[in-house]
Every structure is written in structure tokens, then in C-alpha cells.
Amino acid sequence: MRLFVIGASGGVGRCLLERGAARGHAITAQSRSGNGLVPGAALHVVKGEPTDAPFLRQHMTGHDAVVFCLGIDSRAPTTLFSDTTAAVVEAMDAAGLRRLVAVTGIGAGDSTGHGGLVYNRIIFPLFTRNRYLDKDRQEGMIERSRLDWTIVRPAPFARTSGAGPLRVVTQIPPGLQLRRVTRQEVAGFILDCLEKVSFLRQKPFIGHE
């Protein structure tokens, strides 16, 4: 496939570029600066703002799918995710693209409170709450679109995966706590969703207990 990746210079984005190339896909990587991204036979880098719909439309045309894995570190209130989503939906509609996989995370929608004690009690209220207020807006915009979307909600990121297989749920049962997942696992799951055309219009919550 030809994939257009938004947020390609982030942690999940870089893993996706590596794994996607290894699986034989051609990737166009959007980045504001392009820092650390080296173009190659399977990788084309385009520099521009993710909220710029004309820029996105210009470079998305001719691709098979879009992956949205943009991230931020700030604790402050933000509209980056919803603003980018508005531009992405507009650009995809104009370019005639339908397949979108977007990464939000633990704290969006009904995944709130399912990330383990440390995340639920410390990280979410002190560090990530504001970004997830906007990611809730982002998810609503994607769900209302005409796109063939999948929203991936990873557990808290960790350097090593947990014991046992990756858990994937679309209906979160009471009491379930997914405490960790690696960025490599998330990238692999995204590619599986694209290659198998799976989890259409679903919001899989993924990780290890």
C-alpha cells in the first residue's frame, strides 16, 4: 500500500515507518521539521503543518490510506488534535481517500480509568487530561465523518511489552486494566488493521494487563 503518515517523527510514527517499509509499503511521512527522517526508496518526507488542509490534500492524493499518530508532550489545554482532524477529514474527502487509522489512547472516551493505578491516579489527572479532552473531540469528529475509520487506543506506553499476548478489546469490560504496550506493538497493530481491513468503524483498546 501507499500510506500517508501524519506525525511521522514521533515515537509511534517512527516505528510505523520502519515496520511499514519492512512489510513492503511505500510511505509518505508528514513532519513539521523532518528532523531525523531520512528519505529512501520506500520513504518520502514532506514538511508542513498537520492543520493545513490544502497541504495535506496535495500530498495525500494517490495514497491508499492515512495514519494519524500525532502526539504532544504539553500539559496545557490544546486543540491540536481536533484542528488536525478537521483538516485531515477535509483533505481526505477532497482527495477521494476513505481509509483512516487514528491513534488516540488511554483516557479517550470509555477507556478512561482502564490504564492501571499509576496512570489512572497520577499520570492522567496531572499530565494528560487536557490532551484527552481534545482527543475526545477528535474521536467524535472522526466518528461523524464518512471515512472508513479505525480509532486505536493504546494502553500507557512502555519500553517492554507485558507477559502474554496483546489484548485487544472493542467493548471494555468493567475492571479491565491494560497497563502497558510498546510503540512497536502499536505500529504492528496499525499495519495489521490496514492490511487485513479489520476493525472498521471500531475503537480497539490494546495492551497488556
UniProtKB/TrEMBL annotation:
<dbReference type="InterPro" id="IPR016040">
    <property type="entry name" value="NAD(P)-bd_dom"/>
</dbReference>
<feature type="domain" description="NAD(P)-binding">
    <location>
        <begin position="7"/>
        <end position="195"/>
    </location>
</feature>
<dbReference type="GO" id="GO:0004074">
    <property type="term" value="F:biliverdin reductase [NAD(P)H] activity"/>
</dbReference>
<dbReference type="InterPro" id="IPR051606">
    <property type="entry name" value="Polyketide_Oxido-like"/>
</dbReference>
<protein>
    <submittedName>
        <fullName>Epimerase</fullName>
    </submittedName>
</protein>
<dbReference type="Pfam" id="PF13460">
    <property type="entry name" value="NAD_binding_10"/>
</dbReference>
<dbReference type="GO" id="GO:0042602">
    <property type="term" value="F:riboflavin reductase (NADPH) activity"/>
</dbReference>
<dbReference type="InterPro" id="IPR036291">
    <property type="entry name" value="NAD(P)-bd_dom_sf"/>
</dbReference>
